[in-house]
Each structure stands twice: as C-alpha cells, then as structure tokens.
Amino acid sequence: MKTTCVLLALVGITTTFCFSQTPVPLEEWLVSKGYPDSSASPPIIAGVTNQFSVVNGFRKDPTKQSIVIGKIQPKTFSYTIETWLNRFQGDTLNEFTWGSGFHPEGIVSLDINGDGNTDYLNRSGRLFLGTSEGVPDTTKRYVFGNHPHIRAGSRKNTYGDVDSDGKDDVFYYHVADKGYPYLMSIMLGNADVSNVKTTHIQSPVLSDTTMHEVAVVLFKNKSGSWRLLTYTWANYFFQNPPPGKWVNIPEKSEIRLYGVEFKQQLDSTTVTLTKLDAYQSPEWKDHADDYYKNNWSPVATNGGGTLFNSQHLDKILFYPVVSVINGTQLSTTNPIFDLQGESFFKIADVGGCPECLVLDHSIDGDDIEDMARGFNDELITYSITPNEYTPIAKYKHKLLKPYGTLVNDIYSLPDTNGDNINDIAAMFYHGGAEPNTFVILKGKDWKTVRVQDTEVGNEMLAIGNPFPTPQNASQLQVPIHTTTTGLYELQLFTLDGRMIETVWAKQVDGAQNLTVLVQTSELTAGVYFLRLTNGVHKAEQIVTITR
Q: Where in the chain is the domain with CATH 2.60.40.2550?
C-alpha cells in the first residue's frame, strides 16, 4: 500500500488529507443472491437473475430511482420482473410486477410521446408507456426491431429530443459501408407511438467503396448544438499472396467530428452533416506496413470509447479507442480530447478510460459524476475533477468469492441510506451453476477517506527492483514472482495514482519467476510505480526514470 498524506494548516486548524493510490473498498448496503433450488432436477438457480436496471419516475417520485430486477421463483421456477423502491436497508419487497415478454436489462427512462409520464424502453426493443400513476401500462407493449444500447459510456447517449418537439427520440448506431450506408437511425418520438417514424443519417465517405464509418456517439454540446463522433477506416484487397485478403488502410483511418443539423419538414426530418475536424495519429502512417500485413485497424471498428459530458465541467471529454504498435504487438492507447469547441483539442496522449460507464451521479461527495467499470472480478469507480481530466481510481468492491464472477451491469443511485452521498448498484454474474449476486454499495465522501481505509499489499505476488537493459536505454527489465495460475497484468501508474497503461499481460501457470520488459522511451523523467495484479492480489514497486 502506498498513501500520500498532506498536512494542511489553516488559521490554527491542522488537517491531514491522505490520498490512497489503491482504490478504497465500499461498504455493502443491500445484498441479494441467487441460490440453488434442489427441488428441481437438476437443481436450478432461483432468486435474482443476471438482469436488472435502475429506472426514473416510478410512482412519480423525482427524488428516487427504483430497481427493476429479474427473479426466478423457488419451486414454481416462474420468471418475474420485480420493482424494489429502496426505502430502507435490505428493501427487496416487490412493489410492482412488470409484464411478460419485457426483460429488465438496459432499460432507459424517457418520454417518447410527450405526455409528461416516464416511459420505459429496454434493450430488446420493448416499450411500455408510463401512466399518470407513475407505473408502466403493462397491458400495452410496443415492439421495435431495433433497440438502444450503451454507447460511448452512457445510457443518456441513447436518446434525446433532436427535433425540439418535446418528445424524446431514440438513437441506434450503425457501421456504414457500401452495403448499408447509414451511420445512425433515429426513431422519432410521437404522440401516437404506433405511428412513429424513423430518419437516417447517411455516411458521407462512401463514394470510396472501400470505406467504412461507424457512429460513436451523438451528443449536444454546451452551446446546445448537436455533434456526431465517428471512426472511419478503409479496406483494400491484397491479391498477393493468393488467395488475397482485405487489409485496413491506416492512411484513411481517422476520428471525425461532425456538426449535425435537424430540419423538420411536413412528414419527415432531414439531417445535414458538416465535417468540423478529424484526428489522425502520425503513428498510424509510420506503421502502415504492420497494419497492412496483420489486417489491423488503427481505430475501434465497433465504435468504442467514452464521452464524459458533465454539466459541472466547461469541457466535454472524449476518451477514444485507438491502437499503437509496439514491436510486433498491437495494443490500445487512450488519449484525452476536449470537444467543446469545433475541433479535437488533445489534453493528454494517454490516461483516458474508454471502457468506463459514466454514472448519473457522484458517489464520492462532490458534484461531478463518476465513472465505473468491471475489471478482473472487481468493480472499480473513477473520478474527474475540474482540473484533472484523467480518471482517478477511487473505490472498489469485489465479492468474497471472486473466481468466475463478472460485473454484469452497473448503475448509480440517489442516496439510499440517508448520508447525503449517492450510491451505486451492480450485478455480479457467476455463470453456470453458481448464483448471481446483486449489491447496492454505499457511496463515500472522499474527504473522509483515511489511511486505514486502504488495502494492505499482498505477499503472494512480488516485484523486484527494476534494472536497465544494457543494449537498450529505453527499456527496463522488471523481475516478478507469481504463486498461482491466472491472468496477470503489470500496470504503470504516475505517483499520484493515475494509470498510464498496462505494459504486460499474460496467462501464467503456477509459481514462476519472470522478467518483463517495460518500454520507457515515451516517459518523462520522474517517479512512477508499477503494479502487478491477478485481479485478486497485487504488489507494487516504485521506479525512477532519469534522462
């Protein structure tokens, strides 16, 4: 464990603030587990399933959010969708049962017909309209072929009122190519939901039939203008050696920023795209042959990345997924851009969190929304400050039995336990015959974090003293020791706990002594630390870079 403490003296009052470089554990507020029901043959898992959502507007209470969760009933084995209101600790009383054919995953709360009631659209494209009583009308279900999903790290990026008619519209993101030219489809809200219309945004790059363009996210900037982020890349058919193959052309790969204008006409909405800026890394062209040879793409062809658009910041942060080539290996790097203006303004070359989920609340006691992700059986949350745009790992939670678990979904919640700090909900999915575990974790004011809250390092892993490579001044040799079989990662951090990159990852069998090469040519002189982890245990080592 490494903790930096700062002694602050003001007007005779002395306070010690301690900043841990290890995420601080969060305390459980509610736990609900699945369990094997042996009355079935073979036994099945009853209790909570691996599906849940947090919804707004239930019972017309604007201060609360409710849990919608799937359960398998014991003995009858029937599947139901329950609603928990979080009125007290351990509140798993079902206050409303949702209709059949509606799954409780990926639900977005919106007003698609403009009647002022909250409607609910799930990941399967099923829509229930809200009522004046604040509950969905489960007797009427609308089914749409497309369905929303998390894009660029936030569920809020799946809907918005693009035509300013007071009705929410739903966004569907696509990969556009010569066979399917559309970047996005937008289902336009309508007072008559059975008569909704869909408008399409067409890719402007497809005059070149080798080109592809994937929509990353549609968002509204702080001036109220709509913007669209995309990745482009191209394919070229390489005839030699036979039989040939499609390879990516890095010269045509870029991240694009478009201005988007919606014009409402009598029976349709037209969309105009204006290219504002594009970003290309010089490294893509420098390594063009490697991209050709290995059929690699410099950008994420599935539209990955995270957009952090907080009302409390004057910047709109974008953490894309782009690739770098180290020797013969392809890895990802995560620069940080500010998109509030009309161009890509790079804040940092590395340090973003492209796999993070942007929460609706802050769970560390400030006003700025936090982020979270599941990583090696552990839920980790990250924070942003007005002056620091690299996400900082702050909190964590892992189950007592971490092996085989995955963090299946994460939502933030308004304060449930009365301490005025927002909370977080997560589903840990075990798979197979193991039960699922749903938890609500209490948020924690970061100003109250103390040294004893942090975790002591584990002796099952070890990192020796790094030493330079005689033949290469831009490399360090790092000796490590493992004791158990598993996937190990060696991560590089700044001294204040900001992750730079994962420098090595490998599946290791049992106890081994290994030496890992760490490239240092891109690092400035200073003090860093390395962390070796298998997702359960970790060890850390300080390393000093001199020039």
A: 458-545
